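stage 2 :: seqdesign
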């Protein structure tokens, strides 16, 4: 492709609302343009990158025996109601009616459709199966941001394993785990696999693939010593035992104006240090109020609360709801002798005594609280968010907490969807069994953005050869010089014939503009062709990563370029 014929609308400045590096550089480099919040047009350079990412995914899925489908994006409401997710997905699911007022949804995932197709399997002899597609998904994201990292319309590779038994599911899960590492490695990413919550997907186990990045919206907990790693929504840590001393009588005492953990601790350090306070939160789960108890120095991880309770809709109670329920405002709340709402308490409080909590009367608290004696806890569960530096629950070493981008997620679904749709097969004895399913997803455009977040410098993007829009750019310094352009065109044709993807910058622009644009869009190798080099028979070859320059004889250039490109084409180097 000649640059003068290409649509590459590079920009000097990033959009004012862009925060993530990938958002800034993909817009500035002419890869994407925003149509509306969370909705992006993919421009020609972006299409080329996206196609390469999808191609790598397709190759690795086929390698493990995957069969490609293409399913509708428009779904009748009935299949989502059959699975129970018409309600469970809440406002995230795009809903619409056709001209006959029949309800439909835009698919945000395809478990229901694949499960309905699985009803055409009848015998264990037809299993295992691995089915996949690369298809547009829709999510009514409330806060789209960060360019391609959080959008309302996106492309996903979703695949599904179908098996007769649990060992088969485990095998399919392991195949996908290995395939995902191969996919991401070939794309130039270096993710870690972490334990995760299954959320609305359901199932017994899920694993996320996370790439470390400040642009990420997930917090990851890892232990360098033993290798423990989990999303903060699932992570746990060891809690040091507290010395509570002998039990004490429950005592009510005045706390005027003390409405926070810190102010109460500062005013009464001898009895109310944060780790000796009970934090009482009021939540509304599926329309019902619930009291959540945590240690004063701990924070609630809402996904854990959802996982424990199975709630679909969750929100903090409003001040007026809290006062109606408990008779006091936040800051003076507690669960001592409370009857009615369910009380769920974090395991770090189990067995604790001599604690301090609100008395459900403004400006009053209790001391000497014994959880077993004074509070009717309905459910004990791990609810708190793990913090950096806490001891690992496996080996006791300090934990690290870092931000990451989720680039893939794999789930062991079990029989949730097959049972809902009646997808069964007969075993050797003729007994029917629901098919055991797994579900596995990769966001294609998100993977593109993650590559940029992982590989850039002050000049712009640094694409790995495996996913770069072009592998080489030929920069002609003087378009008005005949020998220069003859050499540039000759190299262009020779490189194409050698199987190299080439962009010829034949614009009538200053060399500085051409260099800046080639660095911005991130093409891995640049060949600079100018009058002096043509006269001397030597071309300058620049590697985008590190901007390493070398002089190569014109007679050796095609061979040299083909060698460096082919050595990197399959993503053997993780950046």
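stage 2 :: out
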């Amino acid at each position: 492709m000649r640059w003068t014929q290409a649509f590459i609308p590079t920009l000097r400045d990033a959009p004012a609302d862009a925060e993530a590096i990938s958002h800034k550089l993909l817009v500035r480099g002419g890869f994407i343009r925003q149509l509306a919040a969370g909705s992006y047009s993919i421009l020609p350079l972006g299409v080329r990158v996206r196609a390469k990412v999808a191609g790598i995914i397709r190759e690795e899925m086929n390698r493990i025996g995957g069969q490609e489908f293409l399913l509708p994006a428009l779904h009748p409401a009935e299949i989502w109601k059959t699975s129970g997710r018409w309600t469970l997905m809440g406002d995230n699911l795009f809903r619409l009616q056709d001209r006959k007022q029949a309800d439909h949804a835009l698919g945000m995932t395809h478990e229901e459709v694949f499960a309905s197709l699985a009803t055409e399997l009848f015998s264990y002899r037809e299993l295992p199966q691995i089915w996949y597609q690369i298809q547009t998904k829709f999510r009514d994201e409330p806060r789209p941001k960060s360019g391609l990292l959080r959008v309302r319309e996106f492309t996903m590779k979703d695949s599904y394993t179908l098996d007769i038994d649990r060992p088969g599911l485990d095998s399919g899960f392991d195949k996908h785990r290995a395939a995902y590492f191969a996919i991401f490695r070939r794309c130039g990413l270096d993710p870690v696999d972490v334990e995760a919550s299954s959320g609305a997907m359901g199932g017994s186990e899920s694993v996320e693939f996370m790439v470390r990045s400040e642009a990420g919206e997930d917090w990851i907990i890892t232990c360098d010593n033993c290798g423990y790693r989990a999303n903060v929504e699932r992570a746990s840590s060891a809690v040091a035992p507290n010395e509570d001393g002998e039990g004490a009588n429950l005592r009510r005492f005045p706390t005027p104006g003390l409405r926070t953990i810190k102010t109460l601790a500062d005013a009464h350090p001898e009895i109310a240090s944060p780790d000796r306070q009970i934090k009482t939160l009021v939540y509304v789960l599926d329309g019902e109020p619930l009291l959540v108890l945590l240690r004063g120095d701990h924070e609630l991880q809402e996904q854990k609360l959802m996982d424990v309770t199975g709630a679909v809709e969750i929100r903090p109670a409003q001040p007026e709801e809290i006062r109606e329920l408990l008779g006091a405002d936040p800051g003076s709340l507690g669960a001592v002798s409370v009857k009615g709402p369910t009380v769920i308490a974090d395991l770090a409080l189990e067995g604790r005594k001599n604690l301090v909590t609100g008395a459900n009367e403004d400006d009053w608290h209790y001391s000497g609280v014994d959880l077993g004696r004074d509070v009717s806890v309905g459910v004990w569960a791990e609810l708190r968010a793990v913090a950096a530096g806490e001891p690992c629950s496996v080996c006791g070493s300090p934990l690290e907490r870092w931000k990451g981008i989720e680039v893939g997620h794999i789930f062991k679904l079990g029989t949730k969807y097959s049972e809902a749709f009646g997808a069964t097969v007969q075993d050797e004895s003729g007994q029917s069994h629901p098919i055991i399913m797994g579900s596995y997803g990769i966001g294609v455009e998100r993977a593109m953005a993650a590559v940029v977040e992982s590989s850039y410098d002050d000049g712009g993007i640094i694409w790995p050869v495996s996913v770069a829009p072009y592998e080489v750019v030929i920069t002609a310094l003087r378009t008005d010089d005949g020998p220069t352009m003859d050499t540039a065109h000759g190299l262009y044709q020779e490189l194409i014939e050698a199987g190299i993807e080439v962009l010829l910058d034949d614009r009538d622009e200053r060399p500085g503009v051409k260099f800046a644009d080639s660095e911005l869009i991130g093409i891995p190798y640049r060949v600079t062709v100018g009058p002096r080099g043509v006269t001397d028979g030597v071309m300058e070859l620049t590697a985008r990563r590190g901007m390493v320059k070398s002089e190569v004889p014109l007679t050796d250039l095609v061979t040299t370029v083909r060698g460096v490109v082919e050595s990197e084409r399959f993503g053997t180097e993780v950046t």
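stage 3 :: structure notes
- The chain has 16 helices and 31 strands.
- The chain has a mean pLDDT of 94.
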